[in-house]
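Many introductory courses stop at the sequence. We go one step further.
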Amino acid sequence: MGISKESIPFRKEDLVFRKIEDEYILVPLYSSSDEVEHIFNLNATGAEIWERIDGTRSVEEIIEELKEEYDHPSGVIEKEVLDFLHDLYEAGIIEVREWK
């Protein structure tokens, strides 16, 4: 299953999201530090998207909220959100279900 505008993304529970100074990071939780393969750095836009991934909003709703907040062409926002969510999905950080 891929990411579409109808998808409803939700976070996996074994992650910690933190802001450290001007950086946002996602750290997978493991029983030992030897198991940690990746720590994900997010920019401010990525953090804004991450905050909206709550299992209740569709991708389309996330896009619409960001369009209201930012003065960027809607096509750019849509592409950035879809690309970012696709990357998170491929990395196993989020899962999705389809809106019915």
